[in-house]
Amino acid sequence: MKRIWAGSLALVLVSGLAACGGSEGGSATPGGMAKDQQTPQGVVSLTGAGATFPYPIYSKWFDTYGRSHPVRVTYGSIGSGGGIRQVTEKTVDFGASDAPMNEEELSKAPGMLHIPTVLGAVTVAYNVPGVQQPIRLSGEVLGDMFLGRIRKWNDPRVAALNPGVPLPDRDVIVVYRTDGSGTTFVFTDYLSAVNAAWKQQVGTGKSVRWPTGLGAKGNEGVAGQVRQTPGAIGYVELAYARQANLQTASVENRAGQFVQPSVEATTAAAEEISREIGPTSDFRISIVNPEGTNAYPIASWTYLLVPPQIENCAKARALVDVIRWSLTEGGDQARELHYAPLPEGVRDLVIERLGTVTCGPDRQPVGAAG
Amino acid sequence: MQPIPEEAGVTAGPARSPVARLAPAFARGNLADRVYGLTLLAMGLTIPVLLAFLLFRVGVSALPALREFGWGFVTGTDWNPVESQFGALPFIFGTLASSLLAVVIAVPLAVGLAIFLTELAPRWLAAPIAFGTELLAAIPSVVYGLWGIFVMVPWLRRTIQEPLANTLGDTIPLFRGPAYGVSILAAGVILAIMIVPFISAVSREVLAAVPRVQREGALALGATRWEMTWQVVLPYATPGIIGAVILGLGRALGETMAVTMVIGNRPDITASLFAPGYTMASVLANEFAEASTDLYLAALMEIALILFGITIVVNTFARLMVWRVARRGGR
């Protein structure tokens, strides 16, 4: 018996060692090349970390780009907070975040470039049995529901927005994201913009003190909770709402129109905002509740965080090029995955800004033209 | 006492390393023995050193919060990252409430199971039941969580929470509605299922360690099987069973994934079992990735420190209890 044990233990050890050796051998090639990658023929490896929301489109972009270019990008979707920390500590080449860095964070990483990549919409999903047509909600009413001031679905203020809709006498059960997330940031940013009481009592953040309701983990958690709780209302990203087949509210925009969330309505929102963006903007501006009759009001961009000075010039060039390629060639892939690409005006400004990245000891600009 | 000869031999040697003084066994014998001894010593020390380092790092990271809030952190009930206000009491309450509820549900089940398996069950039945119970311990907690969300929570809401909240809810605060489904009750039930295998496995060992002569003596004096179990075997095993229960409690305190999926994640302190709550492990898992300000991170670290402290105390206590029985017991 003992001998069998010893034998199997040895086997496990040997196979474990073999596995280690194998993976080391595998990663040694790109890693080693990355160090002497001054030659353009070498494979450059870039690492990034951050937001989970854009992970599907980033991995698609980086994978597609890697097939035709000698660049390997590894992206870890560890959350925006982790992405900001890691790029600040320079343990990764670039970071990613849904919410812009605040002043405290920027003071530790001065000049960090915010590069908007795609836009995402946050939908208001609900489960109201017996109602087929989309329920209409204004920002004021939505905020009061999440504040716990509107407690029934047939409240006169909800009914006033939805004439002829058979709203039931059910409790409104608020479902929120309990894990810190950019989705929460965008949603609370919107509520702060349209509901004064919300702004005063709760405010904007990736995690906030919710006045009422239940917390669920992740988009899938909120979607699941909303689907199985009659009377529930929550917020999830557009892609998840579509995947989970949830009913989504038509939200009133600044022009007084009730708009269903969609990629087109999100782009429309960004186009409105892009008129306000000048060439000196740092892009750290909120796009919730914009003007425009077709604009969906709860949307935001997600950012890549790029250090303004990168020591290794090959890495700097590769990073700038992969981002530029993604922004110019990756629009269709983004739409397929329910993200809205940047409007052209903003995109050109962003690409121009990318060119200001400098590299090497003498801080040469990498250049936008590449 | 006579000096031990081997030790004297080492002392006589010219170079007396600290290793030789502290652990003479490693400085003796031929080279191979010494290398072997030292290697094993290093392996043995790794874990305590790791534990100490972990405690140190978490403590250092928690310092800003310790300084900012002092004791107010443990008694504060307000958790508001936007305003940088952090109080941990709702999380401590949620952790203790859900874990104690789990223990209350799990103990009769697990101890009853252990008694059945050691005292009553025929062998052909005992083996598969014991195997099935231990299989429960092998299920990943996220699977429990998913099962909890999609099967257990709707069931709890329909068959337990809604009827109770609608009838007794107004008079008994414990059953006050509304019946959301996700709740401290749901967390307690799922934790109970998760700790039953631990409690029953350790209890079974403790019961099996009760010396055979105790049982034979009781039977010889004319005791029935029931009397033997309740008046002889159980009293003998009680400290060990308490240890088993506390071991289960320790596991329940630290459980993260399954709990966060069914507890409702709301930092409130309420008397109702049907109200949502929040645990320390859950808030760490939920908010750590996106916590970017220093104070916020430190506050989370301090919660980790509190959780660390509670589980260390609970587990040490449980170990001591189990050892006491094992030392007293026969084989």
Tell me what the structure shows:
The complex is a heterodimer of chains A (370) and B (331). Chain A is α/β, with parallel strands linked by helices and 370 residues long. Chain A is built from 14 helices and 16 strands. Chain A has 2 domains: 2-118 and 300-365, 3-Layer(aba) Sandwich (D-Maltodextrin-Binding Protein, domain 2), CATH 3.40.190.10; 122-276, Periplasmic binding protein-like II (D-Maltodextrin-Binding Protein, domain 2), CATH 3.40.190.10. In chain A, 43% of the residues lie in helices and 19% in strands. In chain A, the strands form 3 sheets. In chain A, strands 1, 2, 3, 4, 6, 7, 8, 9, 12 and 14 form a 10-stranded mixed beta sheet that branches. In chain A, helix 2 (55-68) links the parallel strand 1 (44-50) and strand 2. In chain A, helix 5 (139-147) crosses helix 7 (182-194). With 331 residues, chain B is an all-alpha fold. Chain B is built from 13 helices and 2 strands. Chain B has helices at residues 5-12, 18-22, 31-69, 72-75, 89-120, 123-138, 141-167, 184-208, 212-220, 225-254, 257-262, 280-287, 294-328, and strands at 79-80, 85-86. In chain B, strand 1 and strand 2 (85-86) form a beta hairpin. The chains are: A alpha/beta (370), B mainly alpha (331). Chain A binds chain B through residues 78-82, 84-85, 102, 104-105, 171, 173, 178-181, 202-210, 213-217, 221, 224-225, 228-229, and chain B through 78-83, 149-150, 153-154, 178, 180-182, 260-261, 264-267, 276, 278, 282, 285-294.
